[in-house]
Write a structure and sequence with these properties.
With 833 residues, this protein is an alpha+beta fold. It has 4 domains: 360 residues, Zn peptidases (Aminopeptidase), CATH 3.40.630; 100 residues, no CATH class; 94 residues, no CATH class; 232 residues, 3-Layer(aba) Sandwich (Rossmann fold), CATH 3.40.50.880. The strands form 7 sheets. Strands 25, 26, 27, 28, 29, 30, 31, 32, 33 and 34 form a 10-stranded mixed β-sheet that branches. Strands 1-2-4-3-5-9-6 form a 7-stranded mixed β-sheet. A hairpin with a 5-residue loop joins strand 10 and strand 11. Helix 3 runs parallel beside helix 6.
């Protein structure tokens, strides 16, 4: 019997040896040492495909495609037995999140580790390291796989990676040039960091606006790993960063999550110390903003961490640092590989503890708020529901007369009232209750105001909804599906009216204009067909469209497609308000829109605009590069959008005069964020920087501050993504669809005085009311009595100032209609030919 067992053991070892021998290393497969070249995305896919075909310890899957058609993939690496039992392991693991402890005992000791690589395309070393890490796990580290399941995404952002790799391979010297001034270290605009639409995918986890994020979340939510590592790169002179993270930590992060980060960090440090590699911890990368690749997993119960290697897009294959050594891609790969393997090791050694604490995390009985009740515009509620569905957060609807008691977001007081018929209830006694708290709470608790990103994001404000947070659970009923609108044609009538107060209405308008319908909007509230319509409502008349073939049937079909209700107006004679032929019922001309991009403009803000037009509004946009702007005839366009940027070199004095001349002849400029500053203080313009100074914060006092206190003192001048209440002139076309107040996401302390000769559409009157997030004391004084959105007429045209960016990361839903109104309603009733 012993001989038989010995013989079987020898056979098994031989079989394992044969597998290892047939398993190609990255070097063998690619034909070069990892780190001596950048590997194109398709070859990375080929290598992981080869691993899966030659090892029973690997499964390799495609989970989607990027906007440019590149595959999104992930590998699952574990023991052969675990892979054969993978669905049971996964399902048992998810049962812990449901609070069910009746699972297979053997699956209570399996650790699940997710390794995400290359979310920023020009931080390219981690994809190279992923291939090496996978090979090491399958050969020299197989013992860890007995109780560990590793999910590895080799490249979260293939479009950005290939943009960087292709550029670098085109310009690099042979051999590579270590001089930091060499072209291979000077990545051109927009760089490889973002995805196709130039979004930062590492800020998109919670908002899920991009196709890569949406498809990844479907898989992530099928696993909810114990540990998630997001591999990054930082400046060339910083060595390596790993956990523990810096303060502030969000309050829902558990003591175990904090402590285990440190445990992983110590193990990483052990390997780095052995090799003599430098590193730092706990200084820079906090755990607050919920849309990162470390925070989002943390709020879903994982040990979420960012690992940052020196390098970034500047480093190339090798670069001389300020510390007098050459940082190579070979070095960067080695560091990421060591950190990844170290993390898997700690997970394997602590699988039982990870499972127990993961289940503890999903006990939400200690959350103070039991329910969030949200009400308001049905379209905005539907948009919120779509986001909740992506995160698999459940919700229901309040029954008729349901009593709501709790904190009211608008009044900041405890209230008691009955729910409206379309109130959505989101309870926290569900698996993702802690994420519900993070996304819905009116203001995140800040234990430190020095943060790495925005400090406010509360979804009720972001979606423009009324909200009540209740410490008592609110009962509800099953959600009713949105009613399908079925309009019918009425060729005998004068026309049709459609409301205006959401992005769904904006998409409908864009579709009408693209199909060559003539559309009007009313500047004054109107009553017709026994119904009242607010200013901004769309009026589509038979008279305007008399030459449009099949006008009624085509209009009804388009309205049904967009689920917009048309009210039939049998007559253009209104019961109250303007008749259809009034000068207050203005035609909406089909605008020809251009946007600037290229050097000098913010690639992120340009990407937000580009994405908005192509993926949300569905309206044509022409992108013009700043490199050849002076050769463009702007008379071919009606609207020019200036993304945030630095415009002094783009518009020197002569070019600026040409630009304003074009406006006077009927053009319209929409300037966002820093672009507003181009027009401040210019001759003939009303815009002026808001000058607010405090004697207490004088330059002399700042110069006398000790060196160690400067950084913390300087945050008094900052606004780090705060929600601020503004007043709104909702009689102005730019504000149609809004009430008389708006909660704006303010990203900076940029401040401009009230316009004297223009229109202050949204503004801060008196001292600002900061409802959420951090705003420094000096910055708050600076934005006192300041314009947020405004219009300055100039000749036949206008300049529209948007000091706050309503398209920021595409998640501030409630601001988008200001932008649409600026395009279609403001000064758009005259043709420019």
């Amino acid at each position: 019997m012993k001989k038989s067992l010995f013989f079987l053991s020898i056979l098994f070892l031989n079989f394992q040896f044969i597998i290892s021998q047939n398993l190609p290393s990255p070097e063998d497969f690619l034909g070069y040492e990892i780190g001596t070249q950048f590997t194109p995305h398709h070859k990375v896919i080929d290598y992981f495909t080869q691993l899966a075909e030659n090892s029973p310890l690997v499964q390799y899957h495609t989970y989607g495609k990027t906007y440019e058609g590149r595959p999104l993939t992930y590998a699952v690496i574990s023991s052969e037995e675990n892979l054969q039992n993978l669905e049971q392991i996964r399902n048992d693991h998810l049962q812990k999140a449901e609070g069910n402890s009746n699972i297979s005992p053997q699956n209570s000791e399996k650790a699940i580790v997710w390794l995400s690589n290359n979310v920023h395309g020009n931080e390219a070393s981690s994809t190279e390291a992923a291939m090496k890490t996978a090979y090491e796990l399958l050969t020299s580290k197989k013992e860890w796989l007995e109780n560990t399941v590793i999910i590895m995404d080799p490249s979260v952002n293939p479009d950005g990676r290939d943009r960087y790799v292709n550029w670098y391979n085109q310009v690099k010297a042979n051999p590579y040039n270590e001089n930091p001034d060499a072209v291979e270290h000077m990545e051109p605009w927009p760089g490889g960091r973002p995805n196709h639409y130039l979004f930062d995918l590492n800020r998109d986890w919670a908002w899920a606006t991009q196709t890569e994020t949406r498809q990844r979340l479907e898989i992530y939510n099928q696993w909810l790993p114990h540990i998630h590592v997001d591999f990054h790169e930082q400046g060339i002179n910083d060595p390596y960063y790993f956990a523990p993270a810096a303060e502030p930590f969000h309050e829902i992060i558990t003591p175990f999550q904090r402590e285990f980060q440190t445990e992983i960090g110590r193990n990483n440090a052990r390997y780095f110390d052995e090799e003599g590699w430098l590193y730092f911890t706990g200084e820079r990368f906090d755990l607050l903003y919920p849309s990162y690749g470390d925070t989002y997993p943390t709020y879903m119960g994982a040990i979420g961490m960012t690992y940052e290697q020196a390098g970034h897009g500047r480093a190339g294959l090798g670069i001389e640092t300020e510390e007098g050594y050459v940082l190579t891609l070979v070095d960067r790969v080695a560091h990421h590989t060591a950190a990844g393997l170290s993390t898997v090791e700690v997970a394997s050694e602590n699988a039982g503890k990870l499972n127990a604490e993961f289940q503890n995390f999903y006990d939400n009985s200690g959350l103070g708020v039991k329910s969030y009740a949200l009400s308001g515009n049905p379209d905005k509620l539907d948009a919120l529901k779509e986001l909740l569905n992506r995160h698999e957060i459940t919700y229901n609807e309040a029954g008729a007369g349901t009593s709501l008691r709790g904190f009211d977001y608008a009044s900041k007081k405890q209230i008691r009232q009955n729910a409206s018929e379309n109130t959505v209830i989101i309870n926290t006694d569900q698996p993702k209750g802690k994420m519900v708290k993070v996304l819905m709470e009116p203001a995140a608790k800040l234990v430190d105001s020095l943060t790495y990103d925005i400090t406010a994001w509360s979804l009720p404000y972001a979606y423009g909804l009324d909200a009540v947070a209740s410490t008592r659970k609110i009962s509800g009923k099953a959600v009713q599906e949105t009613a399908v609108v079925k309009n019918t044609a009425n060729p005998a009538g004068a026309g049709y009216i459609s409301k205006w107060n959401s992005m769904q209405d904006a998409k409908f308008l864009a579709a009408l204009l693209k199909e060559d319908f003539k559309v009007r909007f009313t500047e004054i509230a109107v009553e017709n067909a026994n119904e009242k319509f607010d200013a901004g409502s769309l009026i589509i008349t038979k008279s305007d469209n008399r030459t449009l073939e099949n006008f009624d049937s085509r209009l009804v079909a388009l309205a049904n497609q967009h689920n917009r209700r048309l009210t039939v107006a049998n007559t253009g004679f209104s019961t109250s308000g303007p008749d259809f032929g009034s000068s207050s019922v203005k035609i909406i001309n089909k605008p020809r829109i251009a946007v600037l991009r290229g050097e000098g403009t913010s690639s992120l803000n340009y990407g937000e605009i580009w994405y908005f037009f192509e993926q949300e509004l569905n309206y044509p946009l022409t992108s013009i590069d700043t490199e050849y702007l002076n050769r463009i005839d702007l008379n071919n366009f009606d609207v020019l959008i200036l993304p945030s940027g630095r415009y002094s070199d783009i518009f020197p004095e002569d070019e600026f005069k040409k630009l304003t001349s074009w406006v006077r002849s009927g053009g319209k400029i929409i300037a966002l964020d820093n672009a507003v500053g181009l027009f401040a203080g210019k001759e003939g313009l009303d815009l002026e920087v808001n000058k607010k100074e405090s004697a207490k914060d004088s330059l002399q006092e700042k110069n006398l501050l000790p060196y160690a206190e400067r950084e913390r003192e300087n945050i008094k001048d900052l606004i780090t993504g705060s929600i601020i209440k503004t007043k709104v002139d909702h009689t102005h076309p730019m504000a149609f669809g809004y009430p008389n107040e708006y909660f704006s996401l303010k990203l900076s302390a940029n401040s401009y005085a009230f316009l004297d000769n223009g229109y202050n559409v949204a503004y801060i009157e008196g001292e600002p009311e900061v409802v959420s997030g951090f705003a420094g004391s000096t910055a708050q004084k600076k934005i006192t009595n300041s314009m947020v959105f405004g219009e300055e007429p100039m000749g036949r045209g206008s300049i529209i100032y948007m000091v706050d960016n309503p398209l920021f990361r595409a998640f501030w839903e409630n601001g988008k209609l200001f932008f649409v109104n600026s395009i279609f309603f403001v000064n758009n009733d005259n043709y420019r030919m």
